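Re: thymidine-5'-phosphate structure - here you go.
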Amino acid sequence: MSKRGKFIVLEGLDGAGTTTQAFLLCKYLFEKHKANVPVLTREPTSLTPYGLEIRRRLKHELLPNETVIDDFKYWADLFVNDRKWHLSEIIESNLHKGLTIISDRHMLSTLAYQSAQGGQMEYLVSLHAGLTAPDLTLFLRVPVDVSLHRIMANRCGTPEFFEKKEFLEKTAQNYEHAINLVGQQQKVAIIDGTLPIEEVHQQIRIEVDKLYK
Ligand code: TMP
C-alpha cells in the first residue's frame, strides 16, 4: 500500500498568479523525483453540472430562461457541490494511491468570494464540515490594483463576474479573515505574489519541500 499523497492548494485573488504557479509547482514535483506523480487540477471543475453552470455564469453566458444571480447562497451551493464531487472523484482517490494533488483554488476561495457576496464566514466554513482539508495552502497575496492590472492585461474581452474593483477589495480583506480563521487548524503559507514569477516559485518550493521532510 502506498503512502497517502499530499494535497496542496494555490489560492489568491483573480490575477494573483495561482494558475501559473500551480503549473510550475507541478513541473517541479514531476522533475524532482521519478516516483512523484503530481495531479494538476482546479476548482471550479468543468466536470459537473455545478461547475459548468459556474463557468457559464462567470463569463456572463446565460441560457434564454436564466437571469443574473448575485446571491451568495446560490453561488456557494454551486461551488461546494462541485467541490464535493471533486474531492470524492478526483482528490481523495488519488491521494489514497499516493499521488500529489495540486489544486488551483479550493475552500478558501468560497470563504473569501462568497463572503464578499454577503455570506457569513462561519456559515461558509460550516458547509465544509467533514471534508478533506489540504495539507498545505499557498496564498499568493497581491494588492487589488495589481490583481486588476493583470486581469486587464491578460483578458482580451469583458472581465468575468467577480472581476470588479470594489468586489475584489472586499474579497482581499475576506481572504485575510479566512486565513486567520482557518489557519488555526490548517497550514496556510502566505507568499508575496507581487514578486517576479520565478521568485514566487522559489518561495513555493521552500514551503512545499517542508511537507516532504
Ligand atoms: P479562475 O478559474 O480564473 O480562478 O476563476 C474562478 C472564479 O470563481 C474566480 O473569480 C474565483 C471564483 N470562485 C469563487 O467565487 N468561489 C469558489 O469557491 C471558487 C473555487 C472560485
